[in-house]
């Protein structure tokens, strides 16, 4: 995001990665009815009567506003009300008349995000995803375990958000809507002075009548109105004014901005408090049980009273342990029963199933012991009442620490969302540009084209362009660029950045969801939901994990019980006061508890959450786990030249005349031809030619219009100026039109191409009249980046449409050995595919529209942030600044993240690989070491905490290559 002037101010800086392109959709508002336009082809129309019959059939349908069918083009344009009729019904109606519908657009695709409560491991997220994917109307559903969210693409004509919520709840999980597609630009107002339903209706009618208002929702109890609007048409202050003007006579309505509480933060705090409180309550019961079981029996004088027999062999200690254990098992631990029930109902098994099996086995065996003691005068047996509550306590402690740590994984994203200031200074200007008034307003009330004053030390509230003043702005929080950037009139500023010293006035160009900050947050949130291919391993393991653990636990129990009952191993192995059955049961419960799929499910998503958030704060946007995983394998990086390795702002350094044409005529024909070209070199040539015209006596900027103008991709342009045929381009264009290139011209070209300059030749009436030499300086960091990539064992390649001599000169300057020159946009993509055929993962770095095919073809496409929206949309990684150092950052961050994910798998599987044999009693015959169930529960909790904390270490990531400070 260099200072680019005022071009393209109306375009969003970043496009939404999850936007769904559809052909429907011109929304308008006509008397409270939202009307959409449907455009499609109808095959088989032969005359006007055919089109009339289709129009007549459609006109009879309820909800059709108008239907026009062109018999010549075979095209139908239908305006309809989606609340009354669906696009599918329209298609069926046309087909019922006997015609074939073609090129029918996809149904409307809406997107909603849902908070999902109660997911414990990967099998839970898979179950929710499966249930959503099987729902009618749902096109795509992605569930993120660590985010506890789902992103659902659905057809609103078939299903709704309420139905999606029902599906999630039927699967056994809680669900709340976070946002839907219409939430992108919403404002909330608190209403005052209203005491009757009629007044609410009056306000709603007033708002509905406004152009640009999509939906109006009024909460009558809370007196809050929520309005979804189009920011290009209307703004929040206009809406507030409309509400206040809706009152008439004695009625006075007042509206104030209402900012709803952040649901995510509230739910996170609620979850933390819930687990903390459950843990404390569990400890309140578990600690006394532990004392009765483990401590008092070792203190004979003080612990004798617990051995007092109440009835038969039932002791005081056993009775107290039962009384204290029962609330923990069934009240505090009821969430495990609920989770197990829902998991088994959907024919899957998760962590809750293992915990419920282990605690129930311990509890009900202890009940059996208690009943036997109650009914017998001589029975002696050991209970496990301490196992169940201590196990539940350790698991709850683990979950409490886990949710605390998981909250830290989204810290980078939360810091980004908090960058926007709460207030801004709005200026009112007169026609002459003088300031009339200055008002401090909430940033939520800023509208497009507002003029805002940014004082030194203040944050920029929204994206805009400087219209007055000069200052330096610190953009490090958005772009990772450490040096403050100079801002002058015409330069863009980004919302959330800090004005360092001078006072500037800016005009708001992007507000709400269109700001760079909002789009970065949306892109990172989408990336955090995306599942990396490496996670498939965890998903596959977790699918069979729990059944395998249960089977292992049963085998362990039988493996100790049967040989013990048959006397195969010595009775000295059996601890005092414990039977063979009890020893085997303890081993079986320990196996059940120590192995948990939670850590396995958290290994990948937590690392991706931290990495994408950290990358965003460093100026590198990685679009999901798939891009992150592919990037770490890259061994070859292909660079575009213009605007990527070079600055992208060509300037003419030399102009020469070859024939007897005057300099003024030479400049006139050049300007006429190149004025219609969008190429950066063409603009540089036009600017230089205009200066030469003025220097050689031209009195105005007038030039003749070109006729028969044609662009020759990768070569130049041609056309006619008056009676003269004009060609402007490179040597290839001249050869294509058989224009002779003299030795003088050839020498001029060679001389400048070896200086890394591009030569633009101008031919008038099939003779070369003159030439321009254009230079585009290499970025100062290009050579350093190529050298550093080489140290990472990554090869650099350059692909450009420029000539070979210039390309080789630039490549030599930056240290690139492999060069492909004179390549058109499709040729770039072909070169990428050729390199991929060698089995090498390829990354492409580009910035222009002509790089888009290559960005898509590459394994990893990296778009320079100052480039075009098309390039940014096509890329997997967006480098917000034009710093090439961020190419190194993206590749290095991906390697560090994948390394961390592998380490997470070691932590997750390590506990199980080491813990399960110990829990099964492998070491017991040789060392006497046993893993009691409550200690196995502590190990299980520790595995999840270890994985999350391991991922959190990525927050300390630092760029390997820093920009040079001049």
Automatic annotation (TrEMBL):
Q: Could you tell me the membrane topology recorded for this protein?
A: Multi-pass membrane protein; Peripheral membrane protein
Q: Which residues cross the membrane?
A: 278-299, 311-332, 353-375, 387-405, 544-563, 583-604, 905-928, 934-954
Q: Which PROSITE patterns match?
A: ATPASE_E1_E2, HMA_1, HMA_2
Q: Report the Pfam families cross-referenced here.
A: E1-E2_ATPase, HMA, Hydrolase
HMA domain ranges (all copies): 36-102, 110-176, 185-251
Write the Enzyme Commission number(s) for this entry.
7.2.2.8
**What's an example GO BP annotation here?**
plant-type hypersensitive response
Gene3D superfamilies assigned to the protein according to its UniProt record, in alphabetical order: 3.30.70.100, Calcium-transporting ATPase, cytoplasmic domain N, Calcium-transporting ATPase, cytoplasmic transduction domain A, HAD superfamily/HAD-like
Its recorded reaction(s) are: Cu(+)(in) + ATP + H2O = Cu(+)(out) + ADP + phosphate + H(+)
Q: Where in the cell is it found?
A: Membrane
Any idea which UniProt keywords this protein has?
ATP-binding, Copper, Copper transport, Ion transport, Membrane, Metal-binding, Nucleotide-binding, Repeat, Translocase, Transmembrane, Transmembrane helix, Transport
Top EC class for this record: translocase
Cellular component GO terms, alphabetical: membrane
Q: Which GO terms describe its molecular function?
A: ATP binding; ATP hydrolysis activity; copper ion binding; P-type monovalent copper transporter activity
Per the record, the similarity remark reads: Belongs to the cation transport ATPase (P-type) (TC 3.A.3) family. Type IB subfamily.
The name this protein carries in UniProt is: P-type Cu(+) transporter
- According to its UniProt entry, this protein's organism is Anisodus tanguticus
